[in-house]
Structure formats: C-alpha cells, structure tokens
Design a protein that fits this description.
Strand content: 25-35%
Radius of gyration: 19 Å
Number of strands: 13
Helix content: 25-40%
Strand order of the largest sheet: 2-5-6-12-13
CATH topology of the largest domain: Rossmann fold
Order of helices and strands: EHEEHEEEEHEHHEHHEEHEE
CATH superfamily of the largest domain: Toll/interleukin-1 receptor homology (TIR) domain
Length: about 210
C-alpha cells in the first residue's frame, strides 16, 4: 500500500485519471479526495483498476464491460449476443475471440481475474448444460464471490430454460430469453452495461 498524499496534486489533476496495475493499490488522502470531490471524507483505498475523476466524482473503469459465462452447448445463442454487443461498442470477454491470448496460460488463474476485477459485469447464460459443467461452475463461483465483495449488481443472469443455479438467489432479477427474445434481451443488457460505476470507498452503480 502506498500513500500518495505527497505526490504533486496539480500534475495529477491534469491527467484526471490513474491506472493501477498491481494488487496492492494505494491510499487516497483526505486532501486528495477533497481536491477532486469537495467532500469532507476520511482516506479511501483504491485497488487494482483504472479510476477517472470527473464532475467531482470518482469513477471506476474496467478492462471489459462484461465477461460471458456459458456452456458450449449454448454457444449459438451466445454468438449472436456477443456480435450485437460488440457492434454497439461494448468490450466483451468471449473465449473464442481470445484463443491465441489464452493459449498456454493457466486458465484457473487467469479467469479469476477476468470474472472478478477485470469486468464491470458478468453475464451468465443459465441452462441445464450450464449447471453441470465444471468450467461454468468455476466461473460462476468466482463471480458470485466477487458480487458479495462488491455488494452491487454484478452477475446478470440470462435464463435459457427453467434451470436454477445453486448459490444464485431466486430473487435476483434475470432475463427470460425465451419469453422476451433476442432483441429485447440485447436492449436490456445494453442499458445495464452503459451504467457507470461510482467509487467512494466501495463500488456502486450510478443511477
């Protein structure tokens, strides 16, 4: 952990953004916080990620707008969703687009970052196949743990059938894909993915 209160504030304000690529993060002192937000507040800790300071608020940015978790049997539907989201300008983690990047990596380690700190949201495609696959369960457990840490909407479920996933509360809002269809599902996802994430010691979705 690094206390940056003694770094030149003026030069930092000119850039209005900072990128932390390590796990430790740093402490933002009260002086710094007030310089950007004009609020009286104690120190806050910024962890790994990119933060932008604008309109007297701190926004957290992510490498991906969303990471997708799905069973291979449902790839035909997922392919369509990915193409449309990318066409709308969203940054999507979809394994087929990163085969060369993932080659040779320890995926159990790499996916822990993708389905947690690197993604603003995780979209899960729930089906009878999703529930029984080893990798989908692994990805879901990472996302579920991260959602508990963030204490905000993080997992966005799309139900392809009536399967329930252990650990996912039935009270969590979801998209019923078979009921509303492709286009409406995409429109709902797009509205959610455009939401900004405010940071004030913890993450919260800007209304």
């Amino acid at each position: 952990m690094v206390n940056i209160s003694n770094i030149n504030t003026r030069s930092f304000i000119l850039f209005n953004k900072i990128n932390l690529n390590h796990l430790g993060g740093f402490i933002m002192s009260e002086e710094w916080f007030n310089a950007f937000t004009n609020k009286q507040k104690k120190t806050i800790t910024l962890t790994e990620g990119t933060y932008e300071f604008r309109e007297k608020k701190i926004y957290k940015e992510f490498y991906y707008d969303c990471a997708l978790s799905f069973a291979g049997e449902d790839r035909v539907i997922v392919d369509q969703v990915v193409l449309e989201l990318r066409d709308r300008g969203f940054k999507v983690f979809y394994d087929d687009y990163y085969t060369d990047y993932l080659l040779g990596k320890d995926l159990s380690i790499h996916f822990k970052k993708i389905y947690s700190k690197k993604s603003k949201f995780v979209i899960i495609f729930i089906s009878k196949h999703y529930r029984i696959k080893e990798w989908t369960n692994f990805e879901f457990e990472i996302a579920l743990y991260e959602s508990k840490l963030k204490k905000r909407e993080y997992i966005l479920p799309i139900k392809l059938d009536n399967t329930d996933i252990p650990g996912l509360s039935r009270s969590v809002g979801f998209i019923d894909y078979n009921k509303i269809g492709f286009q409406e599902a995409i429109d709902i996802l797009s509205k959610k993915l455009t939401k900004n994430i405010l940071f004030d010691g913890k993450e919260k979705i800007e209304n």
